[in-house]
Each structure stands twice: as C-alpha cells, then as structure tokens.
UniProtKB/TrEMBL annotation:
InterPro entries: Acyl_CoA_acyltransferase, Bact_Acetyltransf, GNAT_dom. PANTHER family: AMINOALKYLPHOSPHONATE N-ACETYLTRANSFERASE-RELATED-RELATED (PTHR43877). It comes from the Bacteria. This is N-acetyltransferase. The keyword Transferase applies. CDD domains: NAT_SF. Pfam families: Acetyltransf_1 (PF00583). SUPFAM superfamilies: Acyl-CoA N-acyltransferases (Nat).
Length: 169
C-alpha cells in the first residue's frame, strides 16, 4: 500500500482542490453547509486565493499515488478574545479512498499544525448527526463531543442535529 502524503495546498493546487471539494459535496451533501452547485459557481481565481499563503485559512490535502483525495481546512479566530481557537472545516475523503488512513492522517496533521501556532489552546469542529464515521474519526484523534445542537440543519426534508467537538491542546 502506498503511503498517504499530507501537505498544505497552494494556489497551483486549485484545479485539483476544485475537483476534490466538488466530489466531496456531491458524495456527502448532508455533511456540508455549502452545496455542490454553490461551490461549482465559484471562479478558479477565488479558489486559488483560498489556497494562497496569506489566506485566512490553511487547507491541507491528503494524496495517495499523487492524487488529491482528502481535504481539511483550519481557520484561526482573529478576534483577540478568541485567537486561542482554531476551527476545523471541510474535512472530506473521497469515497473510493476511505478506509486507507487518509482521514486520520489529515486530522492528525491538522492538529499538529494548529498546535504549532503560538497561543492556540483548542481546536473546534461540528459534525452532523448523520456522519457517525466522521465523529468516530475525530474521537480517535482526541476530540470529544461537548454538546449537540438539535434542529440545526434542515436539508432535503430532513432535520439534522449537529455535534460540537473540541480538542484541547
């Protein structure tokens, strides 16, 4: 089995990022707030700007055999009273690559990166109640559920609760 490689994405990765993110939104629409059509409408230059060194967030990509198959974005809060917090967004692994360690490699790399930032004391994320495998992954990596928001999201005739998780550094 080929080793998973995780690295920060750059503007040059924008086409691969677009394809991977769009595939994730199509494969698991209930896991994300943004829809595939909303994402598909974003121009390439806006996606490249998201991956620039001065972007508000850092997006990591997990590669297997040179193919981008997993994503995770970290965004540090900017308001001084909240600057100790890092939010984890947009975690996904392509369905054909699940079960090969990409998700865990991404989450562990994201945690390590956030812990390297001065002053960070916690990481935060939310996961829909329909995403049990994702919640278990986060828990394996040290996150714990601290609360659940009922009636959080209404999509496609279903009502979802959202679990809120934290990892203290």
């Amino acid at each position: 089995m080929t080793a998973v490689q995780v690295r920060r994405l750059t503007p040059e990765d924008a086409p691969a990022y677009r394809a991977a993110r769009l595939a994730a939104l199509q494969a698991d629409p209930a896991a994300f707030m943004m829809t595939a059509p909303e994402f598909a409408a974003q121009p390439e230059d806006a996606l490249a700007a998201r991956l620039a060194p001065d972007a508000a967030g850092v997006t990591l990509g997990a590669f297997l055999d040179g193919q981008l198959l997993g994503l995770l974005t970290l965004v540090r809060e900017t308001a001084p009273p909240l600057a100790h917090r890092v939010n984890v967004y947009g975690v996904s692994v392509a369905p054909q690559a699940r079960g090969q360690g990409l998700g865990e490699a991404l989450v562990r790399a994201g945690v390590a990166l956030a812990r390297s930032w001065v002053g960070v004391t916690s990481l935060h994320l939310a996961v829909m109640d329909s995403q049990d495998a994702a919640r278990r992954l986060y828990e394996r990596c040290g996150f714990r559920v601290w609360g659940t928001q009922p009636d959080a999201v209404h999509r496609d005739g279903r009502v979802h609760a959202e679990h809120w998780l934290v990892l203290e550094c």
